[in-house]
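Per reviewer request, we include the raw input and output of the structure prediction for the construct analysed in the revised manuscript.
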Amino acid sequence: MNTSNIAKSTLFTASLLLSTSAVSAAELNIYTTREPGLIQPLLDSFTAATGTKVNTVFMKDGLAERVATEGASSPADILMTVDAGNLIDLVEKGITQPVESTVLTESIPAQLRDDKGHWFALSMRARVIYAAKDADLTGFTYEDLADPKWKGKICIRSGQHPYNTALFADHIAHYGAEATEKWLTGLKDNLARKAAGGDRDGAKDILGGICDIAVANSYYVGLMRSGKGGEEQVTWANAINVVLPTFKDGGTQVNISGAAVAKNAPNKAEAVKLLEYLVSDEAQKIYAEANFEYPVKAGVAADPIIASFGELKIDPKPLTEIVSHRKQASELVDKVGFDN
C-alpha cells in the first residue's frame, strides 16, 4: 500500500472510531478549531492524572455544521474554539448544553463565561498597543487612537478582522454606535498605511519607521520574542514597547479561547471534569507557557514576557454584550471606508 493509501486508511479508521455511538466512558472527543498541538500538553497532563483518553478532531471550518449534521449520534463531547463570537454562535445554533460547576464559576470571571453555563473562557489575549521605543504612551486609552496627534502614525490590520471588530464592538458597548463611527473615522485618518496585513506586521513596520504605534494582540509578542517566529521576528519584537490601553471608563479589551459541552455529549461528566481541569492552577500555567496567553484564573502568573507588560485590568463589559454589537461594528467599518 502506498503512502497516500495508508493515510486515507488511517483517516477512515479514525473517523469510524469517532462516529460510533459506543464511546468508552474513559474517553473524550474534542472537536476543535484550534490546532491540537497548542493544547496537547494539557490533554496529556489530564490523561496522566485521570486515565481518560482524549481524542481531538481538528477542523478549520465547519465545526458547527458537522455537529448539527451528526445530530443525536454525534460523538463530540467538547467543542473548543477561539473568539467569544464563535462560542456564542455555537450556543445560538443549539448544539451546546448548560453546565453547572462551582469550580468553573469560581475560577472564571463572570464577564468571561456564559451566564447560563453554555460556554467558558479558558485563556485570554489582550488587544494592546505596540509602540516605538521613543513614543510616550503614558495613560494611553483606546479613545486616544483617534487623537489627531497620531495622524499618519498608526498601523493596524483590516478593520473587518475579528480581532478588530471585537475591539470596535467593545467601543460600541461603551459609547454607542454614533460615537464609535466618529472614533473609527478619526482612527482611519491616523493610519500610516492601508489597514492590512497581520498583527506582527505592526511590529515590523514600527521597526521600519512606517508607523509609531500599532494595534495588535498581546500573545504575538511572546511568539516573536521567544524566537518561535524566527530570528527576524525577534528583531521586530525587540524594537517595540507594549502598552496595555484601557477604555476611559473601563479596562483592556480581551478576547478568549474557550469551550462548551456539546448538546449530545456521550460523556458529559468526563467533559465537565476536563473543563474543570483546564482552569486548575496547573493547566492554566501550561496555557500561559504554551501560547503566551493570559490565564483566566486569578493568581496564576502569565509567562514572564507577557507579565512584563504590566498588570492587566480586564474590561468589565460582558463578552456576550460585546459580541452582540459585532455586526454593527462590521457595518461601521464599511460605512467609514476603514479598509479603503
